[in-house]
Structures are given as structure tokens and as C-alpha cells.
């Protein structure tokens, strides 16, 4: 299972990597959605995948791995109980499911080696050093309120702030501000008169965003990439700043001169070519000699780790490729692209 902030993907496979069941639900990060809602989404995805796998699937499961965004929240007993009960409601035997970080399964989806670095930039953002396929050191991943710099939330937040500034000034809006305002307050325009100054239009925009769940700011991030393609200077600044924050997080967890692989994962890096290109350029400064690759199917990475727990050989790179290959039907998710080296 890949339980992220926006989407939860559950995948059931055989030990040979054949996919026999899968399902999706909304995000299951307890920090973003609360423990109860996160548990409901996790149970929905896991139960749906087991149902799709057919009769007898629940009794045949030999290992399960949940890559959970916000996994540190499981240190709170109440949160852990919610998530463990979710697996039980879905039909997994008690104690069978192992919770790990979404960064660990993302790394596993991008490379079969046991050591390196993974950067996830989706709704949130975290860079993690991986040793023996487990997290040993991380940078950022502090959540939307005080961290996750360069993430979808952070990019969307910067876009919203820029839009509020332009609305407050009045006058023509840039492509970015126009797109964001249209998304947040469609059809609302400032009217003439002292009681309807441009600042009030900006406050209307701000009030609407404030009333929404904070995580919805991440939905504005794609608008930055589109405005960047139109040459919007504000979008260009946001893209470069996001890439700079993400590169800094990567360098924080790597030793000088090391050549271990770097795996890039998450919806921002999979879906935003401007951010990915800027990040790759910035990473080249401190990762010379390292393979920089996009993650493969992250739910497949979790399934591969589960297969290793069930006895699959860890040195079989062909088997790893089978588990982490991209989904090819039911619509292709941008996070499920094949693992591939990026140009340096």
C-alpha cells in the first residue's frame, strides 16, 4: 500500500509480481486528514484491492507493507490503533501488516539497491537517506504548517500569496494570478466604489482559502507549471525556489562525494516538468557520479518489500522490475511511471 496525502493505492500481487488486485481511495496521511478519516481511506483501498483479487485472497496474504505518509504519527498509540484496525477491517490478520514510511517504498520503487537517497515532493516533501532499505536520516517532512518546502502545498501556497498581492494592487493579473483567482473565486470581480476596493477583493480571495482545508492549497500547484510555460515571471520565481528547497533537502542527507543513487518521487516531480528540470540542474552540483532516477510504481515498491519479507530473493533485479513497472490500464497515474535515469 502507498498511503499518501492525496491518494491511497493498494496493490495485491503474487510472489512472482503478478498483479491480481488493486484499488484506490483518498489520502491516508493521519497528519493531513486526522486518524479516523485516514484509517477509513486505508481500509477502503485495502479492502477494495483484496476484493478485486478474488475469493480466498485474504487468507492467502503472506506479507503486507504499508508505505504511510506521516508514519511518525504512529508513535501516538491512538493513531496506531486506528490504522491497525483499518487493516483488520479490510480483512488482514492482526500483526501481518507492517507500517513503514512512504519514502522507503518510493526508494524501493526506483532502485533495487539497499542504500541511497529518496526525495518525495507531492502534497508534502521529504528527503531521506536509506540504508538497508530503511530510513536512517531525513530532512524536512515537517508538515504543511512549518515545513514541506518545495512540495505541492508549498508551491500552491506561494501561488496563492502572489495572487493575493496582485488582487490587492488592482490592475491586470498575470497568467498565474488569473488562473488561481479563477479557481478559488470563480466569477467574482471587484466592483466600483469606495466600499469595493481591490483590497476587499483580495480579502474575499483570502477568506475563501482560509475556510477551506489547508491541504487544498496543493491543488493550485499545477497552475504554477502552466503559468511557467507562458513565461509568467512569478511562476518562474516559485519554480526555482521550490527546486532550490528540494535540492537543499537532498544535500542535507547525503555525504560529500558519495555516488549512491537518488530516487525522485511524488506528484510534483512526476507532473511538473519545470520543477523537475530545475531540480535536476541544481542536484548536478552535488551529486556528480550518482544515478538520479524517477520512482516506478510506488505501490509496486511496497509489494516488492512485502515479497522480500515473504522470502523473495533481494538480488533478483528482474523481479524488482516486474513489481515496480508502471500501471498500464485504468488510467495511468503520473506517480506510476517507470523507473528511469534522468539526463544530467
From TrEMBL:
PANTHER family: N-ACETYL-D-GLUCOSAMINE KINASE. It comes from the Bacteria. It holds the Pfam family BcrAD_BadFG. Residues 2-281 form the ATPase BadF/BadG/BcrA/BcrD type domain. InterPro entries: ATPase_BadF (IPR002731), ATPase_NBD (IPR043129), Euk-type_GlcNAc_Kinase (IPR052519). Residues 324-336 have a biased composition (Basic and acidic residues). This is ATPase. Residues 324-344 are annotated as: Disordered.
Amino acid at each position: 500500500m502507498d498511503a499518501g496525502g492525496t491518494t491511497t493505492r493498494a496493490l495485491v500481487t503474487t510472489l512472482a509480481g503478478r498483479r491480481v488486485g488493486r484499488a484506490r481511495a483518498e489520502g491516508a496521511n493521519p497528519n493531513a486528514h486526522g486518524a479516523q478519516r485516514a484509517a477509513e481511506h486505508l481500509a477502503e483501498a485495502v479492502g477494495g484491492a483484496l476484493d478485486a483479487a478474488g475469493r480466498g485472497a485474504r487468507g492467502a496474504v503472506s506479507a503486507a507493507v504499508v508505505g504511510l505518509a506521516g508514519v511518525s504519527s504512529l508513535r501516538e498509540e491512538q493513531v496506531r490503533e486506528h490504522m491497525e484496525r483499518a487493516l483488520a477491517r479490510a480483512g488482514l490478520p492482526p500483526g501481518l501488516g507492517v507500517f513503514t514510511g512512504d519514502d522507503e517504498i518510493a526508494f524501493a520503487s526506483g532502485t533495487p539497491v539497499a542504500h541511497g537517497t529518496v526525495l518525495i515532493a507531492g502534497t508534502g516533501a521529504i528527503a531521506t537517506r536509506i540504508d538497508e532499505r530503511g530510513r536512517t536520516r531525513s530532512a524536512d517532512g515537517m508538515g504543511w504548517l512549518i515545513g514541506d518546502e518545495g512540495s505541492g502545498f508549498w508551491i500552491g501556497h506561494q501561488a496563492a500569496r502572489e495572487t493575493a498581492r496582485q488582487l490587492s494592487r488592482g490592475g491586470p493579473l498575470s497568467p498565474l494570478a488569473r488562473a488561481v483567482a479563477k479557481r478559488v473565486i470563480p466569477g467574482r470581480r471587484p466592483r466600483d466604489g469606495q466600499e469595493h476596493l481591490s483590497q476587499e477583493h483580495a480579502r474575499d480571495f483570502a477568506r475563501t482559502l482560509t475556510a477551506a482545508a489547508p491541504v487544498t492549497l496543493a491543488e493550485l500547484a499545477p497552475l504554477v507549471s502552466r503559468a511557467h510555460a507562458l513565461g509568467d515571471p512569478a511562476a518562474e520565481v516559485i519554480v526555482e525556489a521550490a527546486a532550490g528547497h528540494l535540492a537543499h533537502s537532498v544535500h542535507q542527507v547525503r555525504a560529500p562525494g558519495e555516488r549512491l543513487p537518488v530516487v525522485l518521487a511524488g506528484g510534483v516531480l512526476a507532473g511538473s516538468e519545470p520543477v523537475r528540470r530545475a531540480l535536476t540542474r541544481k542536484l548536478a552540483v552535488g551529486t556528480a557520479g550518482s544515478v538520479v532516477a524517477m520512482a516506478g510504481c510506488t505501490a509496486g515498491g511496497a509489494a516488492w518489500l512485502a515479497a522480500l519479507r515473504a522470502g523473495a530473493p533481494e538480488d533478483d533485479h528482474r523481479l524488482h522490475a516486474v513489481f515496480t513497472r508502471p500501471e498500464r490500464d485504468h488510467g495511468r497515474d503520473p506517480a506510476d511511471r517507470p523507473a528511469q535515469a534522468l539526463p544530467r
